Amino acid sequence: MDRLDDLAAFVAIIEKGSQTAAARDLRRSLQSINRSLTALERGMGIALINRTTRQSTPTEAGLALYRRIKPALIEINDAKREAADKRAEPSGLLRVGAPVLFAPAFVAPVVCDFLERYPAVEVELKVSDRQVDLLEQGLDLAVRIREMPDSTLKARRIGELRVVIFGAPAYFARHGRPGHPDDLENHHCVLHAADDPDIEKWPFRVAGKHKSVRVRGRFRTDSAAAAHVAVARGLGLGRAPLWQIRRLVDDGVVEVVLADFEITRIPIHAVWPSTKIPLAKTKLFTDVLAARLKSADF
């Protein structure tokens, strides 16, 4: 038996709780699993598993070994799949995550093009504005619109977008147009919660420096679409990525203000777990999405 198979059997025993369950999971015989464990322990000269009639639990040495080799086995298996992908047409299931409004506007069209180009691929698109755990959700790839803090994720920058302040002509007729971020103290604002806990602070760039301005308003929501409706109805000023309100701007429903004080554009990243090597189909999909975003009017 190959030493990698022995290690895989050892990992399965710990994760499944018994040799019987490990054999079922790996589709191997119980005798084969037992031989792998015995060979591994004999080769290392130490007991790795405490065996009982119903349960198998790791020894202290076994637990330490498991923690070291589990990530390595994931890397090896992903590398094997990546090598196989390079020999053949992309195939199989690709799970992608994206924000609620961004998904139908940009990701779904790319999915359609991708499926037409690679008929052996299936795509599952999960839509959420929550920063979900990719491994927990079984995602191969997710789109994140934000600066990437230190994390367990690997990221590729695939685009950037402009964030603007906007309002309805009817609102400006009643309250005037702000000419400087400090003027917002005298304006009503529609507050969109998103992922930022401090929604009453809007960032600007004034004289080349970052400045946060505290705003106020009687309406706050965690729905971007609801916030846009409220601004279009003249309830107050809003803050949003330009692409989200592009049609409202083009139709004259809202107007952009304070353009000279906008912050640096926000990056768009494709992210994946650092414990996984992205497969060929994942890389191909990211390339197609990056090309689509490069041509978009943000």
Stated plainly, the CATH topology of the largest domain is called D-Maltodextrin-Binding Protein, domain 2
State Rg: 26 Å
Round the mean pLDDT to the nearest integer and report it: 89
Task: Give the number of domains.
Answer: 3
The CATH architecture assignment of the largest domain turns out to be 3-Layer(aba) Sandwich
Unreliable runs: none
The level of helicity is 40-55%
Helix vs. strand class: alpha/beta
Distance between the termini: 56 Å
Question: What is the N-to-C order of secondary-structure elements (H for helix, E for strand)?
Answer: HHHEEHEHEHEEEHEEEEHEHEEH
Largest β-sheet summary: 5 strands, mixed
- Broad CATH class of the largest domain: Alpha Beta
Number of strands: 14
Query: Globular, elongated, flat, extended or rod-shaped: what is the shape?
Result: elongated
Number of helical elements: 10
Describe the protein's architecture and organization.
The structure is a single chain. The protein has 298 residues and is an alpha/beta fold. The protein folds into three domains: 3-87, Winged helix-like DNA-binding domain superfamily/Winged helix DNA-binding domain (Arc Repressor Mutant, subunit A, Orthogonal Bundle), CATH 1.10.10; 92-156 and 268-294, Periplasmic binding protein-like II (D-Maltodextrin-Binding Protein, domain 2); 163-261, 3-Layer(aba) Sandwich (D-Maltodextrin-Binding Protein, domain 2), CATH 3.40.190.290. The protein is 42% helix and 24% strand. It is built from ten helices and 14 strands. The chain has helices spanning 3-16, 19-26, 30-44, 60-87, 102-117, 134-137, 169-175, 224-232, 242-250, 280-294; strands at 49-51, 56-58, 92-98, 121-127, 141-145, 153-161, 163-167, 190-192, 201-206, 209-214, 219-221, 238-241, 255-257, 266-273. The strands form five sheets. It has a five-stranded mixed sheet, covered by helices on one side. A three-stranded antiparallel sheet has the order 12-7-13. It has a two-stranded antiparallel sheet with strand order 1-2. Strand 3 (92-98), helix 5 and strand 4 (121-127) form a beta-alpha-beta unit. Helix 1 crosses helix 4. The longest helix is centred in the first third of the chain and has 28 residues, at 60-87. It is elongated and about 80 Å long. The chain starts with a helix and ends with a helix. 28% of the residues are buried. The model has no long low-confidence stretch (mean pLDDT 89).
